[in-house]
Amino acid sequence: MKIYPTGVMLHPNSARVLVRPFISTDPERVAHIIERALTLPDAEVDAALDRARADFAGRHSDIEPIWLRHFRKVAKRCPGGLSHTRQLYIGALFSGEYALESAALFNPSIVPHPDQSGASEGELRFIMSLRATGEGHISSIEFRTGTIHRDYSISLDEVSPFVTAPELDPDPTFLKPIFTHKLEEMGFTNPSAAEIVTPLGERFTLSELDRAIAAADKRNQRTHVGRRTMECVRWLAESNYGLHFKASMPISERILFPVSSNESNGIEDARFVRFINDDGSAHYYATYTAYNGRSILPQLLETPDFQHFAVLTLNGRAVQNKGMALFPRKVGGCYLMLSRQDDENLFLMRSENPHFWSDPVLLRRPVHGWEAVKIGNCGSPIETERGWLVITHGVGPMRKYCIGAILLDREDPSRVVAQLSEPLLAPEGNEREGYVPNVVYSCGSLVHGSRLVLPYGISDSASAIVTLELEELFEAMTPA
Question: Rounded to 5 degrees, what are φ and ψ at 445?
Fold first, then answer.
């Protein structure tokens, strides 16, 4: 089986920097900074702000709205009537640059672009997501766009020198049945939770929820159970949010950076899939791992266009561990998901709702020596005439990660019909060296024409893309 390198290699670029809040958790320190900013003469504020513009405006597409946004985070501590210039200056004091990909740019996932205009016959426009990791090992999601040409060569579009975080939707809407189900999963079936949720409608906004929390707070007289319940209700709301980018912004400039407390230390390994609905329309989902520095939580992204995103908690007792990957369409009237609840084996789940998952069924255990520690998926299954192609990863001796493949029955995906006995890709030569050595890993590939297009991360540092003939891959498989 011949592997065709494409020459595409993506290395981290520490010059791509995001402006994020730089606000101490110590209220006293925040107060001291504001006090110093208020006592400076206007002329000195003007001069300091001019220097900041000269130093940083050229590194960002539009920095002043970001400074104002960060000023608003501390505005309650400031007197009213401040000049626009002083607001900008205070906002700049509470801002800092973050090099998103200074440590690594890896674990890619690739899907067809929602806009195929401009693609010639036999070509496919694509969007590729990547995990970018910077200072403090905080991970975010970046994007690249490009074209797979008729000869299977690949060209990437020019990458924006800027990176920009999205605008958060200020008053997101929640579905009451999903919200209450998650509260029950979290163990909050007490009267305090009912007191908050019962008055709300079937669809309610964050502002309506806040009013219900405030009303319940007065009635509960701040009991320990009441306070704890209110904190968790608000945490759940913050974990489900909407965000959007300007339509004019290049996709490579758009960054999904941690927002909620459950992902404060990173958004890891997004597995994107183009999902075909029952009516033939397409929608994009991605599962990812939220990490807060102590525990992980599988989350779901939804987007129709890579401009507007909904971030949602997944529900059900099977929502555990890493590596959940959604099938690209319903099978037998159900949504299907690959998972790895026990951090060792590959499982299959069925559900009537993409937000609720339970009752995983064992799909495959580690079989070969190169995957004897554990196995998992490398993205969503790909539908082919032969069946569902699942690109896998296996961990073997010395924590060496290799990429393999299995084939599932097209009508009954719980049945493994074929598998590779040897790795499809293994870390060799320079690919062994990196932030985490001896690793090749992917979060999603696709089929174009007769070939599999496989992007993969190299030792948690950089990313490359290869292609291979699909029929040669099938011929190399042995019956399971």
Answer: -130, 180
DSSP of 306-356: SSEEEEEE-BSTT--SS--EE-SS-BTTBEEEEE-TTSSSEEEEEESSTTB
**Average pLDDT for 316-327:** 90
272-to-235, 413, 422 alpha-carbon distances in Å: 25, 20, 26
CB-based contact 340:301 (threshold 8 Å): no
Asked if residue 125 lies in contact with residue 147, where contact means CB atoms within 8 angstroms, the answer is yes
Q: Angle at the Cα of 146 (from 141 to 148), degrees rounded to 5?
A: 125
**Mean pLDDT value of segment 50-77:** 96
* Cα–Cα distance, 459 to 464 (Å, whole number): 11
Compute the distance between CA of residue 245 and CA of residue 224 in angstroms, rounded to an integer.
40
Please indicate, yes or no, whether the overall pTM of this predicted structure exceeds 0.85.
yes
- What is the pLDDT confidence band of residue 221, given thresholds at 50, 70 and 90? low
Tell me the C-alpha distance between 384 and 477, whole Å.
15
Helix, strand, coil: what percent of the chain each, to 5?
25, 35, 35
Spatial separation of the C-alpha atoms in residues 478 and 276, rounded to whole Å: 30
Rounded CA separation 299/297 (Å): 6
Q: Give the residue among 451, 340, 454 at the shortest CA–CA distance from 395.
A: 340
CB atoms under 10 Å from CB of 245, counted, come to 21
Structure-token pair, residue 272? 């994107």
Closest CA to 143 of 245, 69, 289, 292: 245
